[in-house]
Structure formats: structure tokens, C-alpha cells
Amino acid sequence: MTITEFQRHKREKKKLIVVTAYDALFTRILEQAGIETILVGDSLGVVVQGKANTLSVTMEDMLYHTKLVAGAAQRALVIGDMPFMSYQISREDALRNAGRFLQAGAQAVKLEGGAAVADQVAAMTGIGIPVMGHLGMTPQSVHRYGGYKVQGKESDRALALLNDAKVLEAAGAFGIVLEAIPAELAKTVTEQVSIPTIGIGAGPHCDGQVLVLYDLLGLFDDFVPKFVKPYAHLKADALQALRRYKEEVEQGKFPSDSESYH
Ligand code: KIV
């Protein structure tokens, strides 16, 4: 998947499928399943590092996981998620840090915000770094929202979000993640911008969908938002396997002769 192909999907009305990954093992599994776009999300702060939110994730953390994913990916478009405070302060910071993602093997970066980060987005796209925007319930602003709450329900907030989407498009973003906003607003944004919209909790009308891998697989259940659909129950499977292993070792059933050398 290239940026050009990614954008062509919208024109050809083909849904874009995006899943997060943080390591080589799952990157290979995602590609075997035909997933063509992989986001190395800063959600790793929550699902891998066990933190309450994404705010403590560092550039070093992100670059480490981006290298693992990019090193294993053979066909997928790999997008690196810019962590909190890696792009907000200045254009220089944004350019330098975005460049580090590309040096780590990502083909594009994602950042949160609209008009407030338009300068940074224009600077990055101006020197050839593909940028994906992220609007709606942007997790790096969780404290401003007072929790993980649906955004854009009031008409003034909805109009502001639509304007942010147009600003990102004008700044050269190649796509926009829309998170936790009303489906009707996501539909309007999708119709009014020429770049693909990728929904997560934004209803069925976006050009594509993204889910956090561990949510999708039913591995992470500390907090399951309404928009998550677990397609497997791997936590339950893992618990069952681990309990059986413990039981069999305790009872002397494992290892048996077939797992022993002679
Ligand atoms: O960090 C992440 O995984 C994300 C997706 C939820 C879009 O930003």
C-alpha cells in the first residue's frame, strides 16, 4: 500500500482497513490476513505499557515499536503515531521528529489536532513527509475533554471539526482519523473532503475503519468502548491455556514422554 493507492481507495469507493500493531509477530499476522495499512499507535501506552492514557509515551518508545513493525512489514503502509509533545511546540520539533519516524521505517506519520497544528502539517507535507490527521476524541487531549467522551455533538463543535478537516486537507494531509464522533458528522466530513476518512467510533460512512489490535482480538478488556467489536476472545483463550499448563505441570501430566528426549 502506498500513499497514492491509499488515496485512490476513496475515489474507487474501496474501504480502507487499518489496524494497529506494535511488534513484528503481529505485523506478520496482520499482513497474512491481508491488512494493508498498519498504524503504530501511541495506544501502545495503554495496551502495551499498561498506563491510564497515552500522554507518557515518548519518541523513543514510538521509534522502538515503529522499527519492529516496519522491519517486519513487507507490503503494508506503516504509519507512525507522533506522541504527545513531539509536534505541538514548534514546526522544527515536528519536522525533526517526523523525520525520525521515516528514518525508523514508517512511510507516514499521524498527529492529533486540526487548525492548531496546521502549520506543522503544512511544513511536513511541504518537505515530502506524508501526514495523517486525527480529529474528534483525540486521546492526547483526554484531560481537556474530562475523559474519553464523544466529541462534536453540539452544532458549533461539529462545525469546528468540519472546518478542522478542511484545514488539514488544505495543509496537505493524506487522510484523517475521525474518533468517537456522531456518525452523521463523520458522513458530512467524509463527503466534504477529498482525502480518505478513517473512522473509529465514527459510524459506517467513513472511507475506512481502524481498530486497536488488542481490542479487536479481545485481548484488552480493562476498558471496552461502545465502538469496539471484539472479533476473537484471546484473553479468555490465553487464561484457559495458562491454567491448563499450570494444572498439568502440578499433576505431573506435562511434560509427558512425547515432549521428552531420550
Ligand atoms: O493510537 C492509536 O492506536 C490511534 C488509533 C486508535 C486511531 O490513534
Distance between the termini: 50 Å
Please state the second-level CATH architecture of the largest domain: Alpha-Beta Barrel
Number of helices: 11
Structural class: alpha/beta
Give the distinct bound molecules: 3-methyl-2-oxobutanoic acid
pLDDT average, as an integer? 97
Going by CATH, the homologous superfamily of the largest domain would be Phosphoenolpyruvate-binding domains
How many distinct folded domains?
2
What is the general shape?
globular
Strand content: 5-15%
Fold and architecture overview:
- The protein is of the alpha/beta class.
- It has two domains: 3-231, Phosphoenolpyruvate-binding domains (TIM Barrel, Alpha-Beta Barrel), CATH 3.20.20; 233-262, no CATH class.
- The chain has helices spanning 3-11, 24-32, 44-47, 59-72, 91-103, 118-126, 142-145, 155-170, 183-192, 213-216, 234-250, and strands at residues 16-20, 37-40, 77-81, 108-110, 131-136, 175-179, 197-200, 208-211.
- It has an eight-stranded parallel beta barrel with strand order 1-2-3-4-5-6-7-8, surrounded by six helices.
- Bound molecules: 3-methyl-2-oxobutanoic acid (KIV).
Key phrases:
262 residues; binds 3-methyl-2-oxobutanoic acid; 14% strand; 2 domains; TIM Barrel; globular; alpha/beta; eight-stranded parallel barrel; 11 helices
